[in-house]
Design brief:
heterodimer; A: about 270 residues; mainly alpha; MetI-like fold; 11 helices; about 80% helix; about 0% strand; flat; B: about 260 residues; alpha/beta; six-stranded mixed beta sheet; 7 helices; about 35% helix; globular; AAA+_ATPase (chain B); Carnitine transport ATP-binding protein OpuCA (chain B); EC 7.6.2.9 (chain B)
Chain lengths: ~270, ~260
């Protein structure tokens, strides 16, 4: 009798089976333990005096400087400035980029005109354009927003075009045989079919936008989290730098969670039952 | 009498890829289909039977010849020729009722009337209680019933079905055949149904068209003289078995040719 033995064995090694699920409790425990481990290593290095506190301050020092940043340096204003720039730049890029992407993915003529050019422009790093943007636009919010806008735009266009081009042909054909006009197919088939994918693209690109904003704020900024980081570097306040970085991580995580929840709620037909 | 659907001298040539010669998929097909006929087109795989159906639907352009519906030449797809695909053609973001209402919306029929018509066709395919389900929540057989209801609700002149039960398991397929036959007996639509299944082609049809392997031509045109309503028990009737023997022989020759190519 080989079978019961086999089954017992496979149950014990569930986590070794490709893509098989694990219990929610184990999942949560593993998630928490990764953070705990990071904190433990960090504490060991700092409280144990293994690393110079100029290079890596202890966790408690970070919390301390976080409190000082908020109470004495009005850090909340910097956070708001950064969030504002990211959101405005990203939302504008998403509106323009997804519209253009839908058109490119739908009409071959527009694809021929735009796609090669955008593929070319996309590989130029937006951070390298910062000096040009400053020259053209100045150093205000508009310049920072432009960095986000152009950093996100081209990826959104190309990814949306691919998403739209991937709409199943049967759906288009079924729609035609049900009396849709070409424009009707775009509106009532291509758009709804690719919306969930477009929102996932938004989620992905928004993550990148958070990295562009810091680059933008490291250069010629008087507010923002990036500005705080570069100022702290000048004054050798390592703990402030780390606190700034952590803040961005948390902000990114929060926006991602919000978007993820919103997407699941918006498209029940695409996720689960 | 004017045929409902006339296919005159239709050929389809696909351009060869990578310097290979062109492929002739359909070779001068001529067909007359009368109102209320249930035509099944039986052919080995790759014989161009789906291409023929897609040309009738207007989804594919023929290389030569013309297709006429009620004497008028067709040009592109339109609501007068409803189509049911092999699988996965429901709009996944719409529920069952909304899928069925899709064509009616295109016709600018008001919301209330749409609901009434949708309900009627949901009943016809036996899906009452599933109005608010999404495609994802339905079995393959249920999805195809919705696809049939969606095509019928639009009240097309001709209903085209491209191996609609091909992806279903045997038991479900048999039940679906019975249901489709019942629907045809009730609605009297003109139907063209593509299949590679001999039994299915006889059971459903008033006329079976057998196609040759590539290039596809009409090889035989066999009226099925079995009475209606037909129950599944007819599949063991001696006359049914005679048809089956004959068609199996015809289709076997073509399949052999296709394999030896």
């Amino acid at each position: 009798m080989n079978r019961p033995a086999m089954r017992r064995k496979s149950k014990r090694r569930r986590w070794l089976e490709p893509q098989s699920s694990i219990s929610p409790r184990l999942y949560l425990a593993l998630t928490l333990s990764s953070f705990a481990l990071l904190l433990a290593v960090w504490s060991l290095l700092t409280y144990g005096g293994i690393v110079d506190k100029l290079f890596l301050p202890s966790p408690s020092k970070i919390v301390e400087s976080g409190i000082t940043l908020f109470t004495e340096f009005d850090f909340i204003q910097d956070i708001l400035a950064t969030v504002y720039r990211v959101l405005v730049g990203f939302v504008l890029a998403f509106l323009a980029g997804s519209a253009l992407g839908v058109l490119i993915g739908t009409y071959k003529a527009l694809e021929a005109f735009f796609e090669p050019m955008i593929s070319f422009v996309r590989y130029m790093p937006v951070s390298a354009f910062i000096p040009l943007f400053i020259l053209w636009i100045g150093v205000g919010d508009v310049e920072k927003i432009s960095v986000i806008f152009f950093g996100s735009l081209f990826s959104i266009v190309l990814m949306t075009a691919v998403e739209v081009g991937g709409v199943r042909r049967e759906l288009l054909e079924a729609s035609y045989t049900l009396g849709s006009s070409p424009l009707g197919v775009l509106r009532s088939v291509i758009l709804p079919a690719s919306l969930p994918g477009m929102m996932e693209i938004a989620r992905l690109v928004l993550g990148w936008a958070w990295t562009y904003i810091i680059v933008a704020e490291l250069v010629a900024a008087s507010t923002g989290i990036g500005h705080v980081i570069i100022e702290s570097q000048r004054m050798l306040r390592t703990s402030n730098i780390i606190y700034g970085i952590l803040t961005i991580g948390v902000l990114g995580l929060i926006t991602d969670l919000i978007l993820k929840r919103a997407i699941r709620g918006m498209f029940p037909w695409n996720y689960g039952r | 009498m004017q045929p409902k659907l006339e296919i005159r001298n239709v050929s389809k040539r696909f351009p060869g890829v990578k310097k290979k010669p062109d492929v002739l998929a359909l070779d001068t097909v001529d067909l007359h289909i009368a109102t209320n006929e249930f035509i099944t087109v039986l052919g080995p795989s790759g014989c161009g039977k789906s291409t023929l159906l897609r040309i009738i639907a207007g989804l594919e352009e023929q290389s030569t010849g013309s297709v006429y519906l009620d004497g008028e030449e067709i040009d592109g797809p339109s609501a007068d020729r409803g189509m049911v695909f092999q699988a996965y053609s429901l709009f996944p973001w719409l529920n069952v009722a909304e899928n069925i209402e899709f064509g009616l919306k295109n016709k600018r029929i008001g919301a209330r009337e749409r609901k009434e018509i949708a309900a009627q066709y949901i009943d016809l395919v036996g899906l009452r209680g599933f109005e608010n389900h999404y495609a994802k929540q339905l079995s393959g057989g249920m999805q195809q019933r919705v696809a049939i209801a969606r095509a019928l609700a639009n009240d097309p002149e001709v209903l085209l079905l491209d191996e609609p039960f091909g992806a279903l398991d045997n038991q479900t397929r048999t039940l679906m055949q019975e249901q489709l036959l019942e629907i045809w007996e009730k609605t009297n639509k003109t139907i063209v149904f593509i299949t590679h299944d001999v039994e299915e082609s006889i059971y459903l049809a008033s006329r079976v068209l057998v196609m040759t392997s590539r290039p596809g031509k009409i090889k035989a045109d066999i009226p099925i003289e079995l009475e209606h309503p037909r129950s599944y028990q007819i599949k063991v009737d001696p006359r049914f078995l005679q048809y089956k023997e004959r068609l199996t022989e015809l289709i076997r020759e073509e399949s052999l040719k296709a394999i030896q190519e």
